[in-house]
Amino acid sequence: MDPHESDKRDELAGRQLPPEQAAAAAMVAEARQRGLELTGPDGLLKLFTKNVLETALNEEITEHLGHEKNRAEPGRQSANVRNGARAKTVISDAVGEVRIDVPRDREGTFEPQIVKKRQRRLTDVDEIVLSLYAKGLTTGEISAHFAEIYGASISRETVSRITDKVVA
User: Among residues 21, 107, 125, 144, which is most buried (max CB within 10 A)?
Assistant: First the structure.
């Protein structure tokens, strides 16, 4: 090991990282400990992309239905609930094919915005993943970023729930 490399680690350990960077550093360290590559067919970036997409889709359906999974209020007006998920393979520029589970609702009224119905190609998802996780943008800025990239209106509350779950 290069002695200067050890000094750099000690310097980094002494400073306070923003929560997003600290979480990313922890994920990278755990991936290395488990022998997981950072890139490649089963690498960390691909798993992270899948995790962020599925988290975002689950938060979208929660907002659509008005309740968390298995937390519907008795006596509510709508009988619409989650109805499983369907597998979908999307293609990302940076990580290639990613298999995700897209949630469904019983009435078939859920229209996902992050990965739209019949959408197969994710051209800028990698930028969004990095912006959600590493740039430390405010919920308003992230919401605007989604609108700019996808033309999708994502509320600040949904963005906040997504980032809270990804960072946790």
Answer: 125
Kindly give the confidence (pLDDT) of every residue in the chain, 168 residues in length, as a single tens digit, with 9 standing for 90 and above. Answer: 444 444 444 445 567 888 878 878 888 888 889 888 887 777 888 888 888 899 999 999 999 998 888 888 887 778 899 999 999 999 876 777 889 999 999 999 999 988 989 888 776 544 565 566 566 777 777 777 767 665 556 677 766 666 665 555
Pairing of strands 121-122, 96-105: unpaired
Residue 161 to residue 68: CA distance in whole angstroms? 11
Kindly state the helix (H) or strand (E) to which residue 86 belongs, with its residue range. Answer: strand 82-92
State CA 54 to chain mean position distance.
6
Q: Burial-class residue 121 by CB neighbours within 10 Å (0-12, 13-18, 19+).
A: exposed
